[in-house]
Amino acid sequence: MFEGPKPNEIEDWVCVFERGTEYEVESAKNYLSSMEIPSQILSKRDSAFSLNVGETALVYLYVPKDYERQAREALEELELPEDSNREEE
Fold first, then answer.
1. How does residue 86 score in pLDDT terms, banded at 50, 70 and 90?
2. CA distances (Å), 48 to each of 20, 27, 71, 76, in order?
3. For residue 65, is it left (φ>0), alpha (ψ between -120 and 50) or beta?
4. Residues 18, 3: contact at Cβ < 8 Å?
């Protein structure tokens, strides 16, 4: 029925990373920054309720479209623990 939450579409930006914790996304952003790849975080976490599941708990990392390939390749090398809050499909 539902496909799950999806990142927002933002003109000239593409979502390259999503997790359930800001820590993981912040780590990825710092890693890309060290490679001089610009990025921005969009958090949908509901801080009022500290939710860790569902659409109101995801944090997204966006890069300019021109950097998408470079960012995806860099993030493949980044070793972060698997997000235990996401269900396997």
1. very low
2. 16, 23, 32, 33
3. alpha
4. no
Write down the pTM of the prediction.
Answer: 0.74
Question: Can you give the three-state secondary structure of 37-85, one letter per residue?
Answer: CCCEEEECCCCCCCCCCCHHHCEEEEEEHHHHHHHHHHHHHCCCCCCCC
- Token pair 């979502």 is at which residue? 15
Average pLDDT of every residue of the chain: 79
Distance, in Å, from the CA atom of 89 to the CA atom of 83, rounded to the nearest integer, reads 14
Q: Label residue 10 by pLDDT band (50, 70, 90).
A: confident
What's the longest Cα–Cα distance across the chain?
Answer: 40
Site of tokens 């969009």: 42
